[in-house]
Amino acid sequence: MHTLLIATLLLPLAQQPDTVPAGDASAGAGVYARKLCRMCHGEQGEGGYGPDIAGGRGLTFAQFQRAIWKPRIGTGLVYNGNMPFYSKRQISEKHMADLFAFVRSLEPVSEPGSWHWMPAPASASIGQRYYMQGYGCGQCHEPENKFGRMWLGEYAKEVDYEYFAKQIYEHEEKRPGGGMPLWTRETLPEDHMREIYKWMVLEIGMRASIGGVLTVAEQKGDQTDFNLALSNRGVENVGLDAEGLTVFVKVPPQAKVVNGSGPGYEGVMPLAELGLLPGLPLAPHAHDTTGHVERPEQDLSGDVLVWKVPKLVAAEKVALSFSLSGATPSDELFEAFDGSTVHWESPGRRVKGSPPIMVYRDLRVPDKGDHERIFVVRPQQ
Ligand code: HEC
Ligand code: HEC
Question: Do 143 and 360 form a contact (C-beta atoms < 8 A)?
Fold first, then answer.
């Protein structure tokens, strides 16, 4: 015992027993993905809004832990580039060891990666600039917080500044297992939070929480029946109501429409005549210094099944359905449904023509109303 202790003390520094707890790099990869570190530090730790951390940057385990658990106080400037912090409930000691092992297993880079979503241009509201460059919110939420504004819309009548600030400062209380890290009134001062609120809630506006889910109901012979569940996920009497809805489902080129039914069914027409564009998936984009982004070319060929629903109030559900022939469920068939969309005229995203604003790719369609892509459920094979 005694000799062992002396032997340990006599070892050169590099051979001191490792104080790094054994971590599991592949479990760490899971934490890195679930806790969304990747949105700021890159999929392979190559960096982005945050510095590259692949290889560990030479940080000791203690330095690494501190970077994640201990809130840092920023400078309060717009471009401070702070990292939010995580509590021990969000990232446990075990997670920390796994994360460290994962990060150290990655190949260091010589060139840091680029931001997942670009900074807001100088012409953008100050609130959006705090959100994009000040605190990195937009790296997870994209430039307009499409989903965050929808979650707020589910509780619209209760949403004021206090409600909004609570979702962020006390986020962990509501969603202990969630993917969002933490800020305090010191790391994100209230005057900045108010500007973010003004821009996100008062300027662009909350969104109605509308969803369309397409499933296969039955397949018999050459005919396949589909259900389309349209719903407003807002809380009854509290969430936003949507008005003037148009639902369209793309008819796969190999299929024929046998029938369509449900409230507001209008029939089949060429998509090009409908006057609405299919929603696009969210995808990071570049823009010029004014925030201008090009609208991508859209494929408007083919027919669509159309329903018009005058109003869908919070918590309301509507069942729509249709049958196709020559449409045996296959990957090709489900891909052909892609771009089927629910549009609603009101409430729309409140757009100001100028100064130029940053938009998310999904909304680079004529700026009226709002929309959501229909979610297609593929049956288990
Ligand atoms: C909102 C963006 C964002 C998220 C999410 C984020 N980071 Fe960071 N991270 C940063 C920024 C920005 C810095 C640089 C902070 C500074 O210089 O003060 C940083 C710094 C770090 C550092 C210290 C690097 C150094 O050289 O000191 C480590 C380690 C780190 N982050 C790991 C993580 C891990 C692990 C996660 C997920 C659990 C994570 N980060 C999530 C933005 C983020
Ligand atoms: C590391 C990724 C990440 C960052 C950075 C981030 N969020 Fe979130 N945010 C989430 C996730 C994930 C959710 C969904 C709830 C959950 O899983 O915790 C969420 C939820 C929200 C909601 C909805 C809350 C509700 O339940 O009504 C709002 C509003 C929001 N975030 C605003 C912000 C703001 C403002 C910032 C910057 C100060 C920010 N977020 C930064 C990931 C992030």
Answer: yes
